[in-house]
């Protein structure tokens, strides 16, 4: 598949930007489920809960000790363990580890603080050796690690880092513009009260973990701030691996089985995580 075909396939989500949120969520789920690759042979999948938080466990036939927790993307208001099933099943297969995907609460029904609390609950209950996420889930992973002094490996796929502004973001790209990022950021930070607090104030210069593996795509306004953050994290002493998939766009991880540059970068990312985990 070409990247243009992939963009055309997902552009229907942009066309429904003004539709009611429930309709957009249904379309998002249906689109990713329809194009989801088959589970790797022997993969066992179980839906359960931890302290009231929904999770989906992916268990490959041969399992190394120590699970991985994964936080899905979707702008904090879309996405689920179902929409990202193909990604997490493939991650479990490549790492030969159990992957626990978290069904954290979504905005605007919940606050960002409540979504973060769900993720912290699962991480503290399962003691993973690695924590990862893509896009909005990557930001949740950063905040879980930074606010809990989490000691493991952090895996980030085109995350939201720092405080996005027109000055810090890169150029607009297909499937994600600067206006999109700023609108979602505003949503995540609004409507806060004492017990529905804002996003945590995380020092962007301080590494959220000592060991980080990051994956970005070339055509994405989030890539520039991520690369700037990586320079700062490395200067502060963190060990950070980084690769960027050429010509790929935000959301291309959903096409990791069809887009050759994304497949290669994803494979390198997973291999780097595996090496970090020994």
TrEMBL record:
<protein>
    <submittedName>
        <fullName>Lipolytic protein</fullName>
    </submittedName>
</protein>
<dbReference type="InterPro" id="IPR002168">
    <property type="entry name" value="Lipase_GDXG_HIS_AS"/>
</dbReference>
<keyword id="KW-0378">Hydrolase</keyword>
<dbReference type="InterPro" id="IPR050466">
    <property type="entry name" value="Carboxylest/Gibb_receptor"/>
</dbReference>
<dbReference type="InterPro" id="IPR013094">
    <property type="entry name" value="AB_hydrolase_3"/>
</dbReference>
<comment type="similarity">
    <text>Belongs to the 'GDXG' lipolytic enzyme family.</text>
</comment>
<feature type="domain" description="Alpha/beta hydrolase fold-3">
    <location>
        <begin position="68"/>
        <end position="252"/>
    </location>
</feature>
<dbReference type="Pfam" id="PF07859">
    <property type="entry name" value="Abhydrolase_3"/>
</dbReference>
<dbReference type="InterPro" id="IPR029058">
    <property type="entry name" value="AB_hydrolase_fold"/>
</dbReference>
């Amino acid at each position: 598949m070409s990247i243009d075909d992939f963009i055309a396939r997902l552009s229907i989500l942009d066309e429904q930007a003004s539709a009611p949120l429930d309709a957009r969520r249904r379309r998002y789920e249906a689109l990713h489920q329809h194009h989801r690759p088959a589970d790797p042979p022997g993969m066992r999948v179980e839906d359960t809960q931890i302290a009231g938080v929904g999770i989906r466990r992916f268990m490959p036939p041969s399992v190394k000790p120590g699970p991985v927790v994964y936080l899905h993307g979707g702008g904090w208001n879309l996405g689920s363990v179902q929409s990202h099933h193909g990604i997490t099943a493939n991650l479990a297969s490549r790492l030969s580890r159990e992957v626990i995907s978290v069904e954290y609460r979504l905005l605007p029904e919940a606050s960002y603080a409540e979504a973060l609390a769900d993720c912290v609950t699962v991480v503290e209950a399962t003691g993973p050796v690695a924590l990862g996420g893509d896009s909005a889930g990557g930001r949740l992973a950063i905040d879980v690690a930074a606010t809990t002094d989490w000691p493991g490996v952090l895996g980030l796929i085109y995350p939201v880092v720092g405080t996005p502004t027109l000055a810090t973001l890169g150029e607009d790209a297909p499937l994600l513009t600067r206006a999109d990022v700023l609108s979602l950021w505003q949503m995540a930070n609004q409507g806060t009260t004492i017990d529905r607090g804002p996003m945590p104030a995380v020092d962007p210069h301080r590494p959220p973990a000592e060991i980080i593996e990051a994956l970005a795509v070339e055509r994405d306004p989030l890539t520039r701030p991520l690369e700037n953050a990586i320079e700062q994290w490395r200067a502060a002493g963190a060990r950070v691996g980084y690769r960027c998939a050429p010509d790929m766009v935000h959301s291309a991880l959903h096409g990791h089985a069809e887009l050759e540059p994304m497949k290669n970068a994803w494979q390198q990312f997973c291999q780097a995580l595996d090496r970090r985990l020994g």
